[in-house]
Amino acid sequence: MPMASTSGEHSSAKRKRVEEPDASLPTRDKPYFDDGNIILAVKNSHFRVYRGVLATLSPVFSDMFALPQPTKGEILVDGCPVIQLDDSVEDWRTILSAIFPSFEYIEKFSLPMHVVETYLRLGTKYHMEEFRTQAVKRLSYEFPATLEELDTMDNHSRINACASYADEIFTVINLARSHDLPRVLPWAFTAACGLLSFEDIFRKTGPTQPYLSQEDQQICVVGWRRLLKEQRLTTFAWLKAGCSRLTCKHAMQTILIDELLSSDDPFRKVVPTKPECIALARWQKGWEENLCSSCMVMARASHRRGRQRMWDALPSIFGLPEWAELIKP
């Protein structure tokens, strides 16, 4: 005659049943919309989605939904009819994440600028924080607020390249002005000075092309002049600090002529366009040629420190608040 279980054993068995749910029961997988009207059952996963969307995308589902549906004895899950599918769960996760993308899925891809604009504009207007956050993250990545972020950025990996640099930069500056995103302005203005001509900066308004306000046009011009001056004193200060060897002096003078001479006089007739602004140019191996080991070590260290000083000075160069103020959440 079996012995009756003790209360402790009974309690233990009860806890086990509660803590270890039946693995055979289906699980809610993503996406699972509260107002969805159809359940896709794939293996042990349930996806709750919208039959109208599936019917639009697939004639197979369209024909299936067009057939008369049984009403008596039909098993419903969360009030929805269930369609059994024999494909892999991962395949359906992939397809459904493309049809009903989550932000985790969207973040894997770069987006066109006009989509980012829409996210920021409507996300701000209607307090849809996920959309605004997504736009801010992408803009902040492509137009960084630290030198470390700039040096590790994979350009155009978060926002697709626009038709021109001017379209991209002007759009970002205008978005920053209208949607309280000042952190992107220093690098946006620096990029304008380094990549655009005066003709670009002062281009007339067009039916679709973005353009700068007169105030921001003036900021670009004044900032460009300041950058040309400061790049000689910060990033490229090492060109005036070499040793007394003639080979080093000649090498530095060559770099000065090739890279920076046009910044001495922005109105020299031999310069058909504005002088080049390379205030934050990274170190180039070619600059080391014909430098002695001491000058090379000095130059690289000076260039690294100078770039950081140049970066720190960007907000003031363009008449903006300090970085600490610009990057406040």
TrEMBL record:
Q: What is the name attached to this protein's record?
A: BTB domain-containing protein
Annotated region (Disordered) at: 1-29
Q: Which residues form the BTB domain?
A: 36-108
Instruction: Fetch the SUPFAM superfamilies from UniProt.
Output: POZ domain (SSF54695)
Q: InterPro entries, from UniProt? A: BTB/POZ_dom, SKP1/BTB/POZ_sf
Q: Which domain of life is it from?
A: Eukaryota
Recorded hits in Pfam families, A to Z, give:
BTB (PF00651)
| Compositional bias per record (Polar residues), positions renumbered to this chain | 1-10
